[in-house]
Automatic annotation (TrEMBL):
It comes from Secundilactobacillus paracollinoides. The keyword DNA repair does not apply. The keyword Flavoprotein applies. Transmembrane segments: none annotated. Its cofactor is FAD. This is Fumarate reductase. The lineage of its organism: Bacteria, Bacillati, Bacillota, Bacilli, Lactobacillales. One of its GO terms (biological process) is steroid metabolic process. It holds the Pfam family FAD_binding_2. It comes from the Bacteria. One of its GO terms (molecular function) is steroid dehydrogenase activity, acting on the CH-CH group of donors. Residues 9-447 form the FAD-dependent oxidoreductase 2 FAD-binding domain. Keywords: FAD, Flavoprotein, Oxidoreductase. Gene3D superfamilies: FAD/NAD(P)-binding domain, Succinate dehydrogenase/fumarate reductase flavoprotein, catalytic domain.
Length: 476
C-alpha cells in the first residue's frame, strides 16, 4: 500500500535496525516521518542479530567492566590498517554506551554483556534476539505516530538545486510508481551482501560464499546514493561468519543451528584443501572473520574428523568453546543422528569412509593420507610446529570411520560503498555533503572497517545501526 501522504519531513529508506532506531529518534524530534520497507515485514537482518556493541553502558558499569577507549580505538585502527575513519569510530565508541542505555529506556532488554571469542567485552545480547528489539522499536515509533509502509521500495532520489527534494517509490505488489517530497532522506537499506555482482568487487570467490542474510540487502542504498552524486567509497569488508556447511542444494540458514556445522566449523579438528593438505591453524575460528578469510585462500576446504571425535563431542562435550556459533551446548548430543540423517539422504557435503585412503579416494584428496600422518605426529608431540594451533586443540584423527564435511564461508553482511561525515551525511567525491542525504547502518558502516570486518569489537554493526540512525536524525 502506498503512503498516506506525499510529503514528509523525513523519509527513511529501509525498516531494519538502523531505520527503526532513526524512526524513534525522529519521533522524539517530532518530525513527520515515513519509513519505506521493500520487504513484506519489518526488521531486515536486525531480526537475526544476537547483540549490539556498547562501551561504558549502565550494564557494563554494573558488571564492573571497564574499557580503555583510547586503546580500543587504537586497536581497531590498527586492525583496519588505518582504513577506518578515526573520528567516526571514536564518535561511535564514545556514544555506544549511551546508545545501549537509550535502547533500554525504550524497552529493549539485554540478557548479558561480555566478549565474543577473543575480543573486547562489548556485545550486549538482546533478550529474545534482534526480533524482540525490532518489535520494541516499532511499538515506540507507533507511539510517536511514525508511518510505515511495507512492500514499497525506494527507486530513485530526486534533487532540486543539488539538494535532495524527495524520491520515487514503487509499490512492489502492483508495480506502480509515485513521487514523494521530503527535505531529508535517510538511506538505511542494510548494505549489499545479497548482491553477488557487488560482492564480487570485494572478492572473486563468490561461489563458496553463503549469505545468511534475509536476501534483501541488495545494495539499493549505495546505488541510490551513487546516482545522486555520492562517492563510491571503500567496499572493504564483509562480515564473514567463518566456515559454514557448503550445501549447494539448501539455503545456508537451514544449517545455522546444525551440530554437524558446529563440529565441522567451530571445533575445527583438521581442515584440508582441495589437495588434502592442511593450510592454517584451525583455531583461527576464534575470530570468525579471520576463519572466513583463511578458508577463502583455498579453492575447496574440507573439515575432517573421526568416530572418536563424534563420540567425544556427543557424549563428553566440546574440545573447544564454540565461541561464535549459535550452537553452544555442553555436548553436541544430536551429532550422531544428524550425521545418519545426512548420510541417509546422500547430502553431497558429507562423506564417510572406513579408512583414510578410502576418504581420500572418494574426494580426490591425494595428499590426505600423508597430511594425516603428519598431523597425528604433531598431535603426538603436543606442538603444531607447522601452523601453531594451540596445543589444547590438537586432537588426533585416527579411528575410523572417518568423516569429511565440505566448507564454504558464511556471510552476514557487507559494509561500505557510501562515505559519510560525522553527522552521517553522505559525501560526494570532493568530501562535501550531498545536501540532506543521510546514510546509516550497514550502508554507512564502511567507515568503521578496513578490508576485514572487526569481530574484535563484537556487536559493532548492530551497535552502529542504532547509533548512526539516531545520529543522522540528530543532525537533520
Ligand atoms: C544472521 C545474522 C546475524 C547477525 N548478527 C549480528 C550481531 O549479533 N551483531 C551485529 O552487530 N551484527 C549482526 N548482524 C549484522 C546485521 O546486518 C546488522 O547488525 C544490522 O541488521 C544492520 O542494520 P541495517 O539497518 O543496516 O540493515 P537491516 O537490519 O538489514 O535493514 C535494512 C532494511 O532495508 C530494507 N531495504 C533494502 N533496500 C530497500 C529499498 N530499496 N527500499 C526500501 N527498503 C529497502 C531491507 O528490506 C531491510 O529490511 C547479523 C546479520 C545476520 C544476517
Amino acid at each position: 500500500m502506498f503512503p498516506k501522504k506525499t510529503d514528509y519531513d523525513l523519509v527513511i529508506v529501509g525498516g531494519g535496525l538502523s531505520g527503526l532506531a532513526a524512526a524513534v529518534a525522529a519521533g522524539e524530534k517530532h518530525l513527520t516521518t515515513l519509513v519505506l520497507e521493500k520487504g513484506r515485514t519489518l526488521g531486515g537482518d536486525g531480526n537475526y542479530v544476537e547483540g549490539a556493541m556498547g562501551v561504558d553502558s549502565a550494564m557494563q558499569k554494573e558488571a564492573g567492566i571497564t574499557i580503555d577507549k583510547t586503546q580500543l580505538l587504537q586497536d581497531e585502527l590498527n586492525y583496519s590498517h588505518y582504513e577506518a575513519s578515526a573520528p567516526h569510530l571514536k564518535k561511535l565508541i564514545d556514544a555506544s554506551g549511551a546508545t545501549i542505555d537509550w535502547l533500554q529506556s525504550l524497552g529493549v532488554s539485554f540478557t548479558k554483556v561480555g566478549p565474543q571469542g577473543k575480543s573486547w567485552p562489548t556485545i550486549h545480547t538482546f533478550e529474545g534476539g534482534g526480533h524482540a528489539a525490532i518489535e520494541k522499536l516499532k511499538a515506540k515509533a507507533d507511539e510517536f505516530g511514525i508511518e510505515f509502509v511495507t512492500s514499497v521500495s525506494a527507486q530513485r532520489l530526486m534533487q532540486s538545486n543539488g539538494h535532495i527534494s524527495g524520491l520515487v517509490i514503487k509499490n512492489e505488489a502492483t508495480g506502480q510508481y509515485r513521487e514523494l517530497t521530503a527535505p531529508n532522506v535517510l538511506l538505511a537499506t542494510g548494505g549489499y551482501v545479497d548482491n553477488p555482482e557487488l560482492v564480487k568487487k570485494r572478492t572473486p570467490f563468490v561461489g563458496c560464499l553463503l549469505t545468511v542474510s534475509d536476501g534483501k540487502s541488495t545494495g539499493d542504498g549505495m546505488q541510490l546514493a551513487w546516482a545522486a552524486g555520492a562517492q563510491h567509497y571503500s567496499m572493504g569488508a564483509i562480515q564473514y561468519g567463518g566456515g559454514a556447511i557448503y550445501d549447494r542444494q539448501t539455503p545456508p540458514f537451514v544449517h545455522m543451528m546444525s551440530q554437524l556445522g558446529a563440529a565441522a566449523t567451530q571445533e575445527a579438528i583438521l581442515w584440508v584443501n582441495e589437495r588434502g593438505e592442511r593450510f592454517v591453524n584451525e583455531d583461527v575460528n576464534d575470530n570468525m572473520c579471520h576463519a572466513g578469510s583463511a578458508i577463502l585462500t583455498q579453492s575447496r576446504v574440507f573439515s575432517i574428523f573421526d568416530q572418536t571425535a563424534v563420540d567425544h563431542l556427543a557424549k563428553v562435550g566440546l574440545y573447544k568453546i564454540v565461541g561464535n556459533s549459535p550452537v553452544s551446548p555442553d555436548t553436541l548430543d544430536k551429532l550422531p543422528e544428524e550425521i545418519e540423517a545426512d548420510l541417509g539422504k546422500h547430502a553431497p557435503y558429507l562423506t564417510k569412509a572406513d579408512s583414510i585412503d578410502e576418504l581420500a579416494s572418494k574426494l580426490g584428496l591425494a595428499k590426505l593420507p600423508a597430511t594425516l600422518a603428519r598431523y597425528n605426529a604433531l598431535v603426538g608431540t603436543g606442538a603444531d610446529t607447522d601452523f601453531g594451533k594451540n596445543r589444547d586443540y590438537l586432537t588426533a584423527v585416527a579411528d575410523g570411520p572417518f568423516y569429511a564435511v565440505e566448507l564454504g564461508v558464511g556471510m552476514a553482511c557487507a559494509l561500505g560503498g557510501i562515505r559519510v561525515n560525522d553527522n552521517n551525511e553522505v559525501l560526494n567525491d570532493y568530501g562535501y555533503a550531498v545536501p540532506r542525504l543521510f546514510a546509516a547502518g550497514n550502508d554507512a558502516a564502511g567507515m568503521l572497517v578496513g578490508d576485514t570486518y572487526a569481530v574484535t569489537l563484537p556487536g559493532s554493526t548492530a551497535g552502529y545501526a542504532a547509533f548512526s540512525g539516531r545520529n543522522a536524525v540528530a543532525n537533520m
